[in-house]
Amino acid sequence: MDQEIRLGWEEWIGLPDLGLPALKAKVDTGARTSALHAYDIEPFGPSAKPKIRFQIQPIPGRSDLVIACSAPILDRRDVTSSNGETELRYVIESRMHVGGRDWPVELTLTDRGSMAYRMLLGRQAFTEDVVIDPNSRFCQPELSYDVYHSAKVREVAPDRALRIAVLSRESDSYSTRRLVAEGEKRGHVIEVIDTVRCYMVLNALNPEVHYDGKRLPRYDAVIPRIGASITPYGAAVIRQFETIGTYCVNGSEGITASRDKLRAHQILARHRIGMPTTAFAASPKDTGNLIGLVGTAPLIVKLLESTQGKGVVLAETRKAAESVISAFRGLRANFLVQDFVKEAAGEDIRCLVLGGKVVASMKRTAATGEFRSNLHQGGKSASVRITKEERETALRAARAFKLGMAGVDLLRASDGPKVLEVNSSPGLEGIERTTSKDLAALLYEVIEKRVRPSPVRKPRKGR
């Protein structure tokens, strides 16, 4: 039998399952159920296994310190408070840590923001070996709110369930299916949202994103899978989530910049990142000078809005380049003229950058008679070991576009790696199958780390 534990009318307790290492609780034998302070209470997840998430300010008077919590829903029941008011509350279960002991307790969730204690311990929380001394306080070792101001708050944070939106118009694509499957495997709730079916409410006090006639809930994170054809609208939706304060794996600024090939090359140039010599002009009178600035044939003529190798033409002679440029201008299309890196020999390297690290890389080789190495154009892939210079180039490119997830395409040139493109919605299928790495899992590790609580500075005395 466990040793008897003695509690006073006021005690320090911890709720490790919720990431709350220190709370000051009032012990009330007159109350049947226990109550925990919670606001922004929101049920989520499948009806068969519903969950609840909420926020709590564990230190009374400190509105700047907020901990996000989640737990399975145990029940929902009417609770009558001491003033006679009845409230329908969600009920969860959590381990309670007191004086070196742990045991499960049921907690009802309610807003106790105006009360001195963030937690009330009712008699249902007491086991047979708990003795209450109503005339004493702090019979067990005292804790401290200082834990919320140190790195320990991250160490004790549990693996809470997250609500994550995948913005994608292709719910059946490999990448989207992998993101859903891996997220659910890790206990999160993943919702696939069709980007173009989102619409926005713009106001100063409460900006919102709506979908199919309803306001979208608050998400812990958004994973954008924005197709090139809807870049402007997709970026606007991402901006709205950013305005709300939702963590987006890739921000609207980086997505927009990466899709505009002219702007993308200007960003690479500004950060002094190696790339093939590139030229752009609007007037047909500048065709000769445009070709001369890039170099001699063969040359690459590339539409600004090209994706997956489409709209990219190899002009093997100067005359061929002039003909392609003339044809593109006849279509009123915007394009770049780019030096063809011969020594790459139809090969490029795709580096996948996640959370500031290159987590996978593969070499893509063009099919016979083809200069484009894209897998969509029949190219083949193989895992490859990249050099330190190539790794640093890929990281610098992702940082230049402020992307948390990026596919950086490199050419191996005689004078060092050259960035061909920075992709803000890189596909997972080719690189996962080529490298045998679980890249969807690595992405969720980045997200989980990003949304964990951070230490909050202690207020200065006298302020």
From TrEMBL:
Domain ATP-grasp: 265-448
Family statement: In the C-terminal section; belongs to the RimK family.
Classification via InterPro entries: Asp_endopeptidase, ATP-grasp, ATP-grasp_RimK-type, ATP_grasp_subdomain_1, Peptidase_aspartic_dom_sf, Rimk_N, Rp_bS6_RimK/Lys_biosynth_LsyX
Alphabetized PROSITE patterns for the sequence: ATP_GRASP
CC annotations in GO: cytoplasm
Keywords from the UniProt entry: ATP-binding, Ligase, Magnesium, Manganese, Metal-binding, Nucleotide-binding, Protein biosynthesis
The name this protein goes by in its record: Probable alpha-L-glutamate ligase
GO molecular function, one term: ribosomal S6-glutamic acid ligase activity
Domain of life where this protein originates: Bacteria
Keyword Chaperone recorded: no
Pfam families noted in UniProt: RimK, Rimk_N, Zn_protease
GO biological process, one term: SOS response
Cofactor(s) listed: Mn(2+); Mg(2+)
Aminoacyl-tRNA synthetase keyword on record: no
